[in-house]
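From the pipeline queue, job 12 of 40. The input is one protein chain; the requested action is below.

Action: predict structure.
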Amino acid sequence: MASFAEATAIKALDSHTYLANFPDDWCIGNAVETETVPHGGFVTSCFLSATALHFSTIHASLNQPHTITLHLTFLRRNAVGQARFSFRDMKLGRRTSTVHVALTQGDDEDTQPCVVAYLTQSNLQMETGVSLSTSWQLHPPPVPLKSTKVLREGGDENWVHSVGEHVKFRKASQKTTWWVPRQGQRGPGVADEWLCWADGGKFTQSALGVIVDQFPQLVEIYPGTQPLDASGKDVDVEKKRGRKPNWYPTVLLNLDVKKALPEEGVDWLFVRVRAKKIQNGRMDLEVVVLDEGGDLVAISNHVCLILDADRNMKRSEKTKGVDDKERRSKL
């Protein structure tokens, strides 16, 4: 089982090419019966890690360690194993710089990219300029929290630990531990949670990719307003038992980072995810990330499809028994 730091480790191949390895335990799917697909948030974190390495080495003189904006478009399904990140420096500036990054897998030179991205770098700790207070706040407000210490000990009457849905299928979801409102979510199409790493680690800046893609699936908890039992399950869970999981492939993901986390990382983050419209097998998601003090850390917007997992990920007879390396060479 790879830790986040181990799973997102990046190696430089040359000045503008970097290698990563996508492990199976950061995937969606079951390697025996279904195709395993790296978790989209994990892939996003790998882009953040690769870009951080690029700017801490090749462009160290710019002193721009932080990604402030990211736009990812997921073009093709990627897979377990080695992944290559190819960089093009689009604009190098004193305050911000922008790179284009393409993720490819496979040994062929003409391999088409699986994911393409634009990332803008800056230095969040050295930003200066106009700052104005606004009246923005989460609405409805989150359920009150006593403290994260009480939360971890299970003593907060408003929040309960949840194991989520279909965790064996969504292996990557087991990497974090989450608490959700005990009396149910604040409304249909909304989900609140407090998150920490399951292995006791700390959330660093590159972890924001995972954080903005780690939440209760709104379709599966819909309407989500039911009270939860002591194990974090709907009291009506028997009605849902046996329901097959969906797969929610990300079409695109945007990230707007407002704040640099401490260098040593943080133990907890709060996440609210909201869908404005779920229709015809497609949905939008707005993800808001706050720190323990309620300060805005990041905003993310997704466009996702809603697909039947069996139909879209089940292995064909031709691919059963074929290892991931061989399948990747055929992508």
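Job complete. The first helix runs from residue 4 to 7.
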